[in-house]
Amino acid sequence: MTSDAQALVQQLIRPEIQALSAYHVPPAAGMIKLDAMENPFHLPEKLRDGVAEIAHGVALNRYPDASAAQLKVALRDAMKIPADSGVMLGNGSDELIQILAMAIARPGATILAIEPGFVMYRMIATFCGLRYVGVPLKEDLSLDVEATLAAIEREKPSLVFVAYPNNPTGNLFGADDIAAIIRATPGIVVVDEAYTPFAAGKSFMPRLAEFPNLVVMRTLSKLGLAALRLGYMAGAQALINELEKLRLPYNINSLTQAIATLVLKSSSALEAQAEIIVGERTRVFHELAGLAGVTVFRSQANFLLLRVPDARASFNALKDRQILVKCLHGAHPLLDNCLRVTIGTPAENDAFLNVLSEIL
Ligand SMILES: *Cc1c(COP(=O)(O)O)cnc(C)c1O
Asked: Residues enclosing ligand 1, CB less than 6 A?
């Protein structure tokens, strides 16, 4: 039987899919979890009571509101989405990346992204049978504007992804440089603003009207609602109308709709937590900068990228002490011996700093 199934796989599954490894999520039970850019804080008690009440009232026997109308109103209001832009919701922004890729997937179509960047851009290009072109950052992890514009001219991508701030480097590229990329691109440019809550309000959302080919993508995951899986993107209404055709019915479940609507009406609670995280980011940055052998990079996100003498050894030693970070060694030549650490609670950050300074 097994060999029959193996033969079937060989025969049917595309070779580029067989060559992939599934997205790996390491077990984290009992660990201080600083690997996935989650907000380390619970919702305030009063909001949690509100969530409990809402969960009690949700009609679990019915399909969700297919258009998520109330949630969209709350999102437009809380996130200052321009009234004349279209909005689309995804089961995480990952799903929106996939929908964008499906929409442009035709023979020879290309996705271009900055590297090192968010890994799902490349993975989803592969899922959809698209060409993928990565443009490397400079050695200091700044945007190579000339190389990027040249690659756009050469490759004529249908879809360009720029994370603003970037993951895993944490830096925020220049707004003028991104505007130049948007103008030069014949296709759609997605400015992925997953980390905007930590970037002092830097956003392309207010500039949507300037660029017909701009899509601004966001998520509630890094802001404190990772469990709900809610991403959204805003862009020209005519474009969003087409993309909506690819959205599977009921992709945003009723609990997510109801809870996110409630929490967004009190979004100042999440913003206050983001402010604490930004303060801690500054503190952890300076502590790391003072450690011999560590290079830490400036970040506008809720994580820091650091280079250590031996990233694998540090990653394992941290893990042995129940602290889970992300080891990026081997992911890209520019990330040699790099670790990425999510900013946690003050106590979690202290634990990380103490263990790291001990093991170095
Ligand atoms: C985390 C992340 C996402 C994915 O967010 P989800 O909404 O949880 O799917 C998208 N883009 C970037 C750059 C990210 O870091």
From this structure: 37, 92-94, 118, 163, 167, 192, 194, 219, 221, 231
Q: Which CATH architecture has domain 62-265?
A: 3-Layer(aba) Sandwich (3.40)
Q: Check pLDDT > 90 for residue 279.
A: yes
Q: Is the pLDDT of residue 215 over 80?
A: yes
Q: 185 CB contacts (<8 Å, ≥6 apart)?
A: 152, 157, 160, 213
Q: Which residues pair with 90 in a beta bridge?
A: 231
Q: How far does residue 6's CA lie from ligand 1's centre (Å)?
A: 34
Instruction: Indicate the domain borders of the chain.
Output: 3-44+268-359, 62-265
Separation of alpha carbons 6 and 2, rounded Å? 6
Superfamily of domain 3-44+268-359: Aspartate Aminotransferase, domain 1 (3.90.1150.10)
> With 70 as the cut, is the pLDDT of residue 282 above it?
yes
Testing ligand 1's pocket by substitution, the residue of 97, 161, 164, 167 carrying the most ligand atoms inside 8 A of its CB is 167
Using a pLDDT cut of 70, give the percent of the chain over it: 99
- Which residue type is seen at 342? T
Could you read off the pLDDT of 168-203 as tens digits, one per residue?
999 999 999 999 999 999 999 999 999 999 999 999
